[in-house]
Amino acid sequence: MDTTREDFVGKVPLSLAPCPPAQLAALGGERSPGLLGLACIGIGASAALPRIADLPLQHVAAPLLGGTGALYGEAWRSRSTCIAGEGQGIRFRADANVLYGVVEVVEDSFAAAAGASPLQRATEDAYRRIFRLLDAEGFPELWRVWNYLPAINAESPEYGGLERYRQFNVGRQDAFLGAGRLTGGAVPAACALGVAGGPLSIAFLAGRLPAQPLENPRQISAWNYPADYGPRAPTFARATLAQLPGQELLFVSGTASIVGHRTVHAGDVAGQARESLANIAAVLAEANKASGARYTLDTLDYRVYVRRAGDFDAVRAALLPLIDERAAVVYVQADICRADLLVEVEASASRATGRA
Ligand code: 3EB
What we know:
CATH class: Alpha Beta
CATH superfamily: RutC-like
Radius of gyration: 19 Å
Number of helices: 6
Bound molecules: 3-(2-carboxyethyl)benzoic acid
Number of strands: 20
Number of domains: 1
Helix content: 10-25%
Strand content: 25-35%
Strand order of the largest sheet: 5-6-7-12-8-11
Largest sheet: 6 strands, mixed
CATH architecture: 2-Layer Sandwich
Order of helices and strands: HEHEEEEEEHEEEHEEEEEEEHEHEE
């Protein structure tokens, strides 16, 4: 029997499902007691974004590819009623087990200080606030983080030519260190993409209990990257596995054409797409070893980031033979965090476990 994503909604503790534009327009507090939060991808459609005062919403200001419309919405839903709150200037909703929040930071409101760029300081501030919020609310365990920032590959002459993604990595790691958190091993799954403009935007899903981090044997752990990729390593795991009553969630981080620590297939977008899927397959094998599950490439939901819009057909053609045509795939034009990377793929999955 086929299981569609819609079959999960309301039946498992937490579900992620598309929210079509008509539904976005109809969302309201009382009518959606289990709505944890939203992600909306698209540019030029800001007017269609729902404006609900106490709803955490991440607007990913990036174009959709492949004729999926101007705006794509995705809703996290809980089976139970959520509470809405705000702390540290961050809007969040939570049920008994998970908290979803979104923080947006305008980096121009930060001055450079002691060699730290405004972006570095904005990133550190955002993460410090996330950690204070999570500690205060009793959801200290970060499971998954979605990071979007403008001009991710731009280099700043005033900071020794340091690429903005690398500035972001310094601020992020400093926040983890400052909060007394680990910067390797038990770190969240994540993605970090470049968008055309707007604030630094960070969405996060956190739990009361830790998720299990997973690494990819084909890749050096990102938190162990050598200094060639910046003064501080990125703080993320290749995937995390989180448990809820009766449900397991798998979050596969943004995954690119990297083997060891090096970019492979430079200039070959189809090759990069296939290598990204080979990396995801390797992460799935680790997930299956860790949890006894049988995740396959066909059972995932995907977000595919393509640097050059004109590469969309080539990327889709490369991925189609590898993932079931029924798999949910959203294609987005975004910049990847190394100038030579042309594509990045992230994924998630959920299964019932029968464990309370
Ligand atoms: C990589 O493997 C590609 O900095 O949070 C993927 C996922 C990447 C997350 C992040 C970066 C991040 O290094 C880039």
